[in-house]
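User: Quick sanity check before I run a bigger batch. Here is a single chain. Can you write out its predicted 3D structure?
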Amino acid sequence: MPDRRAYEASVADWPRLRAYAKRVARDTRKPPEGPISYTTTEYQTVEKERVRKYGPFGLFTRRELTSQNQPVTRRIDVAGRHWALDHRNYHIERNTRQRGGTLQEITHEQHTFLLLPDGALKHVVLYEEEVMNVERGVTRAFVKHSHSVRDIDDFQLKSFDFEKTYAEHGTHGRGTKTWGDREPGRRLLVHARGVGLSLALKRLL
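Assistant: Done. Predicted structure follows.
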């Protein structure tokens, strides 16, 4: 069993990890996965001119400007072709009672640790936020999408160095509930920081 104290005292050899990642990206024979993207809907205000007739027999005309909110769907490209090293997910549901109704907010996170063709190591997160407000019998709901992309760093290394574990807390529809496998488990799998990531890269060769 790996020694926890020795692991905590260790330091990740990032120059070696990055050099190895470039080598794996160059030498792997496994086909890369397709790009990561999502679609989002935004509303834009569009002004339109309308001609109205008035007066006896509609002899007179008047031009009026009206505005409308029109949905515009866009595709957001997050990351190009890549090799996935690991996938994680996390979900949190918050339920709040308000005067005359309830508010439910749910956030879904889809995590991907990946290797790009140039050897870069990235941590990509797709977020989906669902909000539903029920007030006096009327339900209003909307969904929002966003993302983040960052380099894999010392904090993310624990996702590879510790056992992958699913955890669930709380009850749906009451208070706060969380579930998913985003957080590293307690069981240490390797003897030093960064070894887990190195093993994940090795599996691509």
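The chain has one domain: 4-34+79-202.

User: Great, the batch can go ahead then.
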